[in-house]
Structure formats: structure tokens, C-alpha cells
Design brief:
Elements lengths: L1 H29 L7 E3 L9 H9 L1 H4 L7 E2 L4 H10 L4 E5 H9 L5 E5 L7 E5 L16 E4 L5 H12 L8 E4 L3 H10 L5 E4 L2 H5 L4 E5 L10 E5 L1 H6 L1 H20 L1 H12 L3 H13 L10 H13 L26
Parallel strand pairs: 1-2, 1-3, 6-7
Antiparallel strand pairs: 3-10, 4-10, 5-8, 5-9
Helix pairs in contact: 1-4, 1-7, 2-10, 2-11, 10-11, 11-12
Protein name: NitT/TauT family transport system substrate-binding protein
Organism: Saliniramus fredricksonii
Keywords: Signal
Length: about 325
């Protein structure tokens, strides 16, 4: 029964992920003329979009002087970057990895704020009857899944192993494909532990056992950032400031009113309110959403992880890609 119910619930969430990818594919082409559209990675599915959903519902964009068009989704960080660069979109929230990779290959990227301040929304789980795994130390000799090579789950798994004094050679690491693919492999007994993230985990807590919370083994690692192009940074600075301010107010609303935020978020994402409340509470516990300011130590830590999986080489000169002038003054570095 667990397998059947889990499969059904997982299909519902994965249908959302697939829809997000389809919408992202069509989004850049059909909205290139929409000057006030923005894009958020995995909008409609994952937790990155909560502050924007709240800000739109509460009228914070209009209060800040920005007439928001549509919020477009994407299937991942690289797609978000492409939507901003080639789709004529003013602003996008994307993975820090995708933004840095684009910058290092000479693309016209300006990072303007922090989005998700930690990767601790990701965790590893196993089946509830697996008595052989209760912590990362028990990964030794087991088959441990991540999503894809050079993905955030690949990076955070290897960082966690390093932090625990373990080696990838101590176990079998398996690229499962996606979160849903990993759950299928786990249900079939083909792997021993798989990654999952909120809010999918909030819908699956009764069906699995958590064995690795990243916050238990890793210091904070920055996850997503807001980006624009140099042309928009020069021409539409006031609009960028308004977006960042509205998002900040959305984050503050979530912290002050988690129950109401869950209701709004569930309605926007068309999900169960109780599940979204569980997910929001979990994110508040790890201080997931930044109000926008940069913590360069956490960003450097992300670069350490990306070097570990051969995504980047060398150091990043943050002053060459980050522009803090669009942040409220109290969030800027001293």
C-alpha cells in the first residue's frame, strides 16, 4: 500500500515538474515582448517561488512601483539563465551555479540579490523498514543515489561525505536521473537511499525515513540568486529594485504569517494547504529564504562544491558579477 500511495503522490508532484519544463520551453518564445514578466526556477513546484507568490497576492510589487506581468517557470537553473538572456526577461531567480557558469563563459549576467540562502531543503531518505541506515556514516558499503552528474545533489552529497570524513569510494554512487526516478529505484530496492526536497518531502514523510539532513553535516551553502543583464541593469534599475523589495516583503510576510502564507502558496501552486504549511515550517527552521543580501562566505562555499564536481575551476571575482546597488541600503555589504 505504501508503494502504491507513494507512487500516486509522486506522480502528482512529478507531473508538476514536467509541466514546469514544458511551460519553460514555450515561455521564452511566447513572452519575449512581455517587458514585465519574470522567471523563477521551478515556479509552481518547488519552494523558491513562495516569496513571489506572497508578494503578488499582497500587492507588494505594485506598492514598490512595478507592474508585474507573468511569473514564468523553468525546468532548472540553466533554462532560467537562457530565458533571461535570450527571452528578453527582466529578472530571473536561478541557481548560483548556473549564474556563475554563464558568467565564466562570457555571458552577460549580473547577479542582483540572493534568493534561497541554503541548500538544506535537500535531504536523503530510505525506506522505513531499512534498519541498516540511520545516518551518513551508514552509507558505507551501500548504494546511494543522487540525481545527475554535476547537479546540486551530486555536489551536496560529495560535500557531505567530505565533511563526515568519508569517501565516495566507500560506497556505490548512482545517478538516478530525477527525484522521481530515485524514488522509483528506492521502491524497487535498486538503491538504498535517495535525495528528496521540499515540498515533495512534506507529502512523503509518512512513507520514508530521513537519514541525512544537510544542515546536520554542512555549514550554509548559498543556493539561488536573482539575475539580470547589464543592459537591464543600466536601463531598468528602479524596476529591479522594486522586484527585490517586493520579494523581500514576501519573505517577511512568510516569517510573520506562516499559516496565511501556506494558504496563499497552496492556492497559487494548487497543492494541499497542510502539506505546504509543513514545507514552509521546515524552510523557516533552516532560514531558507534570504531577504536579498549577499553572504560571500556562503557563496564561496558553493564554489568549493562546484569545484569538487568539476563544474568550475579557480576562484570567482564576485565584484565582476555581483551588483549590490539594487538592494535596499540596509542589505548591502559594508
Amino acid at each position: 500500500m505504501i508503494l502504491e500511495n507513494t507512487a500516486k503522490t509522486s506522480r502528482n508532484w512529478l507531473a508538476g515538474l514536467a509541466l514546469g519544463a514544458a511551460m519553460a520551453f514555450g515561455g521564452a518564445a511566447t513572452t519575449a515582448q512581455a517587458q514585465n514578466d519574470i522567471t523563477v526556477t521551478h515556479w509552481g513546484v518547488l519552494m523558491y517561488g513562495a516569496p513571489y507568490a506572497i508578494a503578488r497576492d499582497q500587492g507588494y510589487f505594485e506598492e514598490a512601483g512595478f507592474e508585474l506581468g507573468d511569473i514564468l517557470t523553468s525546468s532548472g537553473g540553466g533554462t532560467t539563465v537562457r530565458n533571461v538572456l535570450t527571452g528578453g526577461l527582466l529578472y530571473g531567480e536561478t541557481s548560483l551555479a548556473a549564474a556563475v557558469s554563464a558568467h565564466l563563459t562570457g555571458r552577460d549576467i549580473v547577479i542582483v540579490n540572493t534568493g534561497a540562502a541554503t541548500v538544506a531543503d535537500i535531504l536523503w531518505i530510505t525506506t522505513p523498514d531499512n534498519d541498516e541506515i540511520d545516518s551518513i556514516e551508514d552509507f558505507v558499503g551501500k548504494r546511494i543515489a543522487y540525481t545527475r552528474p554535476q547537479s546540486v545533489t551530486d555536489m551536496t552529497l560529495r560535500m557531505s561525505l567530505d565533511a563526515a570524513g568519508l569517501s565516495a569510494d566507500d560506497m556505490e554512487l548512482i545517478a538516478a536521473g530525477g527525484i522521481g526516478d530515485g524514488l522509483t529505484l528506492l521502491q524497487q530496492g535498486a538503491v538504498d537511499a535517495v535525495p528528496i526536497l521540499e515540498p515533495i518531502w512534506a507529502s512523503q514523510r509518512d512513507n520514508y525515513k530521513a537519514v541525512l539532513y544537510l544542515q546536520d553535516v554542512l555549514p550554509r551553502v548559498a543556493q539561488t540568486v536573482g539575475i539580470t543583464t547589464s543592459a537591464f541593469a543600466e536601463e531598468r534599475g528602479d524596476d529591479l529594485r522594486a522586484i527585490i523589495e517586493a520579494r523581500r516583503k514576501g519573505v517577511q510576510f512568510i516569517k510573520d504569517n506562516p499559516e496565511e502564507a501556506a494558504r496563499i502558496f497552496a492556492e497559487v501552486y494548487d497543492r494541499d494547504e497542510a502539506i505546504m504549511r509543513t514545507a514552509i515550517d521546515a524552510m523557516l527552521e533552516i532560514d531558507y529564504w534570504s531577504e536579498g543580501g549577499f553572504i560571500y562566505e556562503d557563496m564561496d562555499r558553493k564554489m568549493d562544491g562546484l569545484r569538487l564536481i568539476d563544474v568550475v575551476e579557480g576562484d570567482v571575482d564576485w565584484s565582476a558579477v555581483v551588483d549590490e546597488s539594487f538592494l535596499p541600503e540596509d542589505l548591502r555589504s559594508e
